Amino acid sequence: MSRTIEFTEDTLILHLSGIVSAAALRRRVEIPYSQIKQVTVDDSKISMFQFRIGTSIADIREGRFLIGDRWCFISYENHKDVVSIELEQHEFGKVVFQTEDPVGTSNQIIEHLTKRPRS
User: What global pTM score does this model have?
Assistant: First the structure.
């Protein structure tokens, strides 16, 4: 798949490659665990006419989308069962992406959040 997740000690990194990175106009999104408010697996259909910097063709959404008053990073070819990460104090209010195992990926992210030392 053109999207991979890297878990570092304090940051989740979404890596994009190939045509996905070209369509999204970005190769990676770094998300500090401290900025993650919530992780879910959702249906996240976004209008192809939503204001964006990136690509919106058929059900493909790649790039930055202005949803309400916040920028969100979206990367999927199918809007059903995508990982959705709500953020605070980040350049994106939300990051939504497709993986082969959305529930497993979501559980891994939550596991890293629970391992994180509290301030």
Answer: 0.92
